Amino acid sequence: MRVLGISGSLRGGSYNTALLRHVGELFEAEGAEFGIYDGLRDVPPYDEDDDTEGAPEAVSRIREAVRDADAVFFVTPEYNSSIPGGLKNALDWISRPFATNPLRYKPVAVIGASAGMFGAVWAQAELRKVLGAIGARVSEGEVAVGHAAERFDENGRLNEPNLEQEVHEVVLTLLGDAQSAAQTGQPSANSFTTHKLNTGGYES
């Protein structure tokens, strides 16, 4: 089982990226392959004109990374009560063409961390909405890591057993959803949510 991790933060000392590395350890302990996508900052602003005759190299790279994964695990900070622009931009690229985009029917999970007390809950909700609109299968489970500066030990691991357990539960849920999808070819109705759309999510 191959899981791709994507952090919505570009900052070198990001709490969300530290959280994602910790998540990777939990996936690997469960026998899954885990890799963190490191090219988010290279994705250019979405321009449909650039997507008509071959996408930019950075776009092709992230699309292929998502396509090759059995599941995708997102960790996001919150910027102005919503998703970081770089992450939203990358998802706009990934979502095209809508009918065959690599996130369509892909099991995904979302958690987040913030320096404030609420743990990026609004950004997580926005990200789940966007992923559902793209056609991804969003696993149940939410973890809000508030006051992130106090939540990690010197090794970058969560220092609160309750948070650790919550993250582990999301990891197990996503693995179960991905295994179910792989075995049956269909998502689990009990674990997945999605938005029904008649279009590709936005007009050009």
Task: Characterise this structure.
- The protein starts with a strand and ends in an 11-residue tail after the last strand.
- β1 (2-7), α1 (15-29) and β2 (33-36) form a beta-alpha-beta unit.
- Strands 1, 2, 3, 4, 5, 6 and 7 form a seven-stranded mixed beta sheet that branches.
- It is of the alpha/beta class and 204 residues long.
- The longest helix has 24 residues, at 161-184.
- It has one domain: Flavodoxin domain (Rossmann fold, 3-Layer(aba) Sandwich).
- It is 37% helix and 15% strand.
- The protein has helices spanning 15-29, 57-68, 85-94, 121-134, 161-184; strands at 2-7, 33-36, 71-76, 107-113, 137-139, 144-145, 192-193.
